[in-house]
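Data card: per-record layout.
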Amino acid sequence: MQPAPARYHLRLKELPPDSQPRERLRDSGPAALSDAELLAILLRVGVAGTNVLQLAQQLLVEHGGWTGLQRADYAELCRRHGVGEAKTATLKAALEIGRRLLITGVDERPQIKSPADVAALLMVEMGHLDQEHLRTVLLDTKNRVQQIATIYVGSVNTAVIRVGEVFRDAVRKNSTAMIVVHNHPSGDPTPSPEDILVTRQIVEAGKLLDIDILDHLVIGRGRYVSMRERGLIAGW
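The structure for this 236-residue chain is written out next.
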């Protein structure tokens, strides 16, 4: 009986010189690298028959890019051939660092000036969620993002929404303003009558708490609707 052939993992340094992401990052900066090259640096090694760049490209395609990898189940990634627990932990940690960078540092926090700014923060992720999520974007006196909080997962309607839950984090953060965001898993962001009713209830509660509700965005797949732009919430 012949012994099983040794498994060979092609490492980054063994790729052709013009395909080595680390060297390209050093010489040209991280912005010059493709998504696959950046991911290959995190993965470090490929598997037998698949180099690390090919493995990185496969993962990005399988999960629909960075957002899909961020949402991917930890155990599922661990089971994927060529990934395993160590690579999964590295990837999840790197993606979480990127997420936190969006909202850390007073001077670096994004400032919301329009509904499009909110959509830029959340539409890529929320447009592909399988369930309905209700989130709040908490803002300071200069409309800089303090926190993005998930309030509900599941059907967003008047039967389940408790005003105290919607404003809980805003009160704790002493926020002066808030934007409500929820998604339609169907992909169609057209507000339902229930969405409009919920919006009005939240706006009225905000007046009592002295927290301005600047907008309520409904996110679909690649599209969004602003209740403010529809005239359902008073001017910005």
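Known properties of this structure: Residues 151 and 168 are 9 Å apart (CA to CA). The chain has nine helices and five strands.

See the next section for split statistics.
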